[in-house]
Amino acid sequence: MVSAEQVWDALAEIPDPEIPVVSLVDLGVVRDVRVSKSRVRVEFTPTFLGCPALEVMRDQMARRIEELGAEPEIEVVHDDSWSTDRITPEGREKLRAAGFAPPAPREPSGPTLLQLQPGSFRCPYCGSTETTLENLFGPTPCRSIRYCRTCRQPFEQFKTI
Predict the structure, then answer these.
(1) Which has the closest alpha carbon to 87: 2, 159, 29?
(2) What is the dihedral of CA 139, 144, 145, 146, to 10 degrees?
(3) Interior/surface letters 3-23, b for 16+ CB within 10 angstroms, e for the rest
(4) Counting beta carbons within 10 angstroms of the beta carbon of residue 109, is it exposed (0 to 12), middle (13 to 18) or buried (19 or more)?
(5) pLDDT band at residue 136, thresholds of 50, 70 and 90?
(6) Considering the chain, what is the average pLDDT of its residues?
(7) Helical H runs in 13-151?
(8) Average pLDDT estimate for 18-22
(9) Which residues contact 15 (CB under 8 A, 6 or more apart)?
(10) Phi/psi at 25 (5° precision)
(11) Residue 131 backbone dihedrals phi, psi, to 5 degrees
(12) pLDDT category, 116, cuts 50, 70, 90?
């Protein structure tokens, strides 16, 4: 019989299809793992409902669970949306090391448009806060493009969702 810890460890090895420097666990899309005899139930919430990688993530998780010798049951949870607060500290560091600006923590009072505030995001290359928003629309709905005035590098910034 497989343990929940073994399943979490296996899922932590699956890279996000769009941002492979972080795993599905680092990204915080895996919400729950339950093991019952030879069946493993995983609940996950994609970063947004129209995510084109949804089926890829589901298939990768099912395959890893089968490799552990268990029967997978993968459920997409829609009743509670994903937020950037779910990204693990390790995931944030992996994003930064790969040249992405991790999202800012959300304010307890509610979401704000932090991506529009100058100096709110550090450059992942040099650490400067002298950054500007170049394009609100990045390669995916959860990212935008910023530019560092100090080291003159463009970089992707995760929007705070």
Answers:
(1) 29
(2) -160
(3) eeebbeebbeebebbbbeebb
(4) exposed
(5) confident
(6) 87
(7) 24-27, 54-67, 89-97
(8) 92
(9) 21, 22, 23, 24
(10) -70, -45
(11) -120, 155
(12) very low
